[in-house]
Amino acid sequence: MATSPIHERIPPHAYFAVSAVFHYLGPGFAVLLFAHVAPLGVAWLRIMSAALVLALWRRPWRIISAMSWSQRRLLVLLGLVLAGMNGVFYLAIDRLPLATVGAIEFLGPVMLAAFGLRGRRNLVALAIAVVGVAMLTNVRLEGEPLGFALAFVNCALFVAYVVVGKRIAGDGGTAGLDRLGMAMLVAAVAVAPVGLADAAVAFRHPSLLAAGFAVGVCSSVVPYVCDQLALARLPRATFALMLSLLPATATVVGVVVLAQWPSLAELVGILAVIGGVALHRADPGDRSRRSGNALRQPGPHGPEDLPDLPGDDELRRPIRPAMASDPGRG
C-alpha cells in the first residue's frame, strides 16, 4: 500500500498553529528592526525575500503563457494590492500596538460577510466587531490619528486582497502558490521606488539583511504555505473559526516580543473583534458547507466566503501549462 506524503501525515490543525504564530511573529520582529531600517524599507525586504523564496521554489513565471489577459491583469492588480497592504501595515505598526492593528484588520472581512448576502447573524457579528474597534480607537485615537488612518487603509487593502485573490484563485493548491509567487514578484517591483532607498542600509550590514530576510520568510512564506496545506484538509468552517484566534495571537506576540501590554479597554476591544470574527465565520448555515466544502484560495489570513463576482467562472478556470508535469518543477 502506498505511503501518503509526509505533509499529509501531519495533522492539519498543526499547520494552522504554525501559521497563526508566524502571521504576527514576523511583524513583531519587524518592529524591532525599525530601529535600524525604516518601515517601508523593512516592507520591501519582507516582500523581496518572500518573492525570492517562492520564485526559487515554484518558478511561477511558467504559468504566465497559459494565463488569459484577464488573469494576468488580476495577477498584476493583486501584486499592487500586496505592495500597498504590506507598506501601510508596517507604517501602522510603527505607530500603534501590533494587537490593535491586527484587530482593525479583521473588521474588513466581517463587513464583507455582513454585506455579502450572509444574513442577520453576520450583521450581529459586524456590530460586535465595530464596537470592539471603536473601543480600540477611543483608547489611542487622540495620540495617534495617523496610525489609525493607516490601520484603516490597511483594512481596506485587506478587503481588496480578499476580493482580487478570490478571483484569481482558480483550482487552488500548487497553482495558488504559483500565482502567489508571481504576485509577490510584482509587489517587490511596485514597492521598490519607495522602499529600496530605505532598505539600502541593510545591504551594508549583513546582519540587518539576514534579519529582513527572516521577517519575509516568517511573515509571508511560512504562514501562506501552511494556510494552503491546512485548508486542503480542514472544512472551511473549521478553518475559518480557528482564524478568529489570530487577533489573540497578535496580542500575545505583542506582549512577548514587544512588551506591548494592552489596557483593559483594549483587551475588551480585541476580545469583541475575536467574537465578531468567530460569530460570522462559524455560521452552521454557511452555503459553502451545504455545497460540499468547496475550497477557495485563502487571503492573507484564510478563506473568505464571498458572493461570486462577474467573470468568476472564467477566472477560476484551472491553469495547466504544458510544463506543469515537469518532474523537476518546484
Describe the structure.
There is one protein chain. Helices cover 72% and strands 0% of the residues. By secondary structure, it is an all-alpha fold. It has one domain (26-316). The longest helix is centred in the middle third of the chain and has 31 residues, at 173-203.
Proportion of helical residues = over 70%
Uncertain stretches of 5 or more adjacent residues:
282-330
- Largest sheet, if any? none
Q: What would the principal axes of the Cα set say about the shape?
A: globular
First-last Cα distance: 26 Å
Structural class: mainly alpha
Mean pLDDT reading: 76
Number of strands: 0
Note the quaternary state here: single chain
Counting DSSP H or I runs of 4 or more residues, the number of helices is 15
Q: Compute the CA-based radius of gyration.
A: 19 Å
What is the percentage of strand-forming residues?
Answer: under 5%
Helix and strand arrangement:
Elements: H1 6-9, H2 12-33, H3 39-58, H4 69-93, H5 98-105, H6 107-115, H7 120-140, H8 145-167, H9 173-203, H10 206-231, H11 236-243, H12 246-258, H13 264-281, H14 287-290, H15 312-315
List the defining traits of the structure above.
mainly alpha, 0% strand, 330 residues, disordered C terminus
Could you write a compact summary of the structure shown?
By secondary structure, the protein is an all-alpha fold. It has 15 helices and no strands. The chain has one domain (26-316).
